[in-house]
Every structure is written in structure tokens, then in C-alpha cells.
Design goal:
With about 100 residues, the protein is of the alpha+beta class. The chain has one domain. Helix content is about 40%, strand content about 20%. It has 4 helices and 4 strands. The chain has a 4-stranded antiparallel beta sheet with strand order 1-2-3-4. It starts with a strand and ends with a helix. This is DUF4031 domain-containing protein.
């Protein structure tokens, strides 16, 4: 279950993903499969080659790109989430979601 974002933030992320940009969307999230994880960052891009290259640049396995809908994305969580957000200069998301 996702929460902590509004419709405008989600729509902006979708537009950026669809236009081929690397786009970040962090939100609170709970899933019993991942105890202790309280947020996820979805890094999306409709250009799969670009998203794959981004994953490799951050030492992430592109096999885990979710391709089941119109918004392909890679889910970042845990310590890797904070590490990548720091590398990408996303301090506002780190602060907002207390990562």
C-alpha cells in the first residue's frame, strides 16, 4: 500500500517516465514481505535502454526492472535507497521520508 504522496506528484512522475526521463517517486509503503521497510523509491523511465544503463551505473541488477505496465521502474528500498538518493542529490526526498 502506497501513501504519503498526492495525485499531482504521481501524475508528474508518470508524465516524466512516459517522456523518457529518469524520474524518481518516493512514498511510504508497507508490505509484509519486507519487514522494517517503510518507504520505496520508484525510479522510472519508458526508455528501457536508458533505465537499464541507469541501473548499471548504480550497480543495480536491471533484471529487477518492473515492466508490467506503461511505467517501467526499478524499486529502491533499504540502505540502497538512501545511498542512491544521496548520489542523485535528492536530499528533499531523504528529508521528507526520513531516510
Amino acid at each position: 500500500m502506497a501513501f504519503g504522496i498526492n495525485r499531482e506528484e504521481l501524475d508528474t512522475w508518470k508524465q516524466n517516465v512516459a517522456s523518457g526521463q529518469i524520474a524518481f517517486l518516493t512514498h511510504y509503503w508497507m508490505d509484509e514481505r519486507f519487514p522494517g521497510v517503510t518507504s520505496v523509491t520508484k525510479v522510472g523511465c519508458a526508455d528501457l535502454d536508458k533505465l537499464t544503463a541507469w541501473c548499471l551505473e548504480h550497480k543495480l541488477d536491471p533484471r529487477y526492472i518492473h515492466k508490467r505496465n506503461a511505467y517501467p521502474h526499478f524499486d529502491l528500498m533499504g540502505s540502497k535507497q538512501r545511498e542512491v538518493l544521496l548520489q542523485e542529490g535528492m536530499m528533499h526526498q531523504i528529508d521528507r521520508f526520513r531516510l
